[in-house]
Amino acid sequence: MSDYQTMVQAIEEQAIRFDHYDDLDAIVEAIGEAKYVLLGEASHGTSEFYTVRAELSKKLIEKKDFSFVAVEGDWPSSFTVNRYVKGYDRMSPLDALKDFDRWPTWMWANEEILSFIQWIQKYNQSSKKKAGFYGIDVYSLWESMEEVIHQLEKKGSKDIETAKKAFSCFEAHDRRPENYGIHAAFYGEDCVDEVMRLLIKIRQNRLTYQDEHETALNLEINGLVTVNAERYYRAMVQGRPDDWNIRDHHMVSALEQIVSYYGDDAKAIVWEHNTHIGDARATDMVDEGLVNVGQILRERAGHKNVFSLGFGTHRGTVIAARKWGEAIEKMPVPSAEKGSWEDLMHQTGAFNKILLFNQKNRALFSQPIGHRAIGVVYHPEYEYLGNYVPSKMSDRYDAFIYIDETKALNPLITERALS
């Protein structure tokens, strides 16, 4: 029997049919006492990946006392959502999403997220422990520095001059990361000392910033962003794997800082693309010298404390763009390539299913197989040329949710009209 036939038979025998959200309880049970639950997605523009993650997150918050949701988004814009769900500022849920105004806006400014943050806000109104919402990505260099200055001015802090000096170092680059990266990487005109000095000052004086609105945490993560974004943009122009690794190490560092803020019993739910949450060592990423959040967390916290859940679909529609920064489109997602993981899942029945990986079945799903990944830039007619990642599925994830046919995400705010 071939490896594919073995996997098809194993899927038929072990997959759980997923017809109702109550079926997610099997995953809740499998998560056990894990401290980090990583919820993936096979694209940034599929409605069901968001809605299913939301329903599972609700169960984890209600039944297992998870502390917060951390997403693959910018800290400043996500912290506006955090202020909304925790009642720090009075605003509408639409206003809470207004700061997601930088391309790709649809990733977090969408109807699915709108519904989810409304649920968190309502839950927090009757809960002693309020669930948070944070962004742990690295891109928001200028926005994070502006927020640091804003918060220090509000506090009347003596650290404001250090912050302004750091910010002024970047001003000549007109908020264009590539301009800064070129000057820093090739001409030695970097701002390393300035951003490091700022982060050190914030950490030294963190006790003076503590208040009921999480100002200390807000300042420290924004300071961390400035340090790692500077490194990221400097590495980006050099074309090595460093920029990817800097980004994923940053996301783990931000996540650990939030967990530390919440205390020893804190537990985190993370929403990111499969390429970030599925262990890189189980893919061809390892051959390129790439690491990711899933790998780093397993190494630091131990596998038993990290539960990674992958997602995939056989066909449907998706929101994406043809080029970075261009108008978004509702695109077709073609039927999965023959012999791919998604094709095998479809062969075992054209219905949604959950597959749990464990010690008993892990060897059955450890052979490399193509696993589809769709980014914010997508060309469905050419996806067979590079959208399938060779993956040892049971090593990459602890469980997998398969949605046979999916539909496109519903954007709320976009810089350009939907094509």
UniProtKB/TrEMBL annotation:
Source organism superkingdom: Bacteria
Stored Gene3D superfamilies: EreA-like (biosynthetic domain) (3.40.1660.10), EreA-like, domain 2 (3.30.1870.10)
Stretches that traverse the bilayer: none
InterPro entries assigned: Emycin_Estase, Hydrolase/PRTase-associated, UCP036794_erythomycin
A Pfam cross-reference name: Erythro_esteras
Protein's UniProt name: Erythromycin esterase family protein
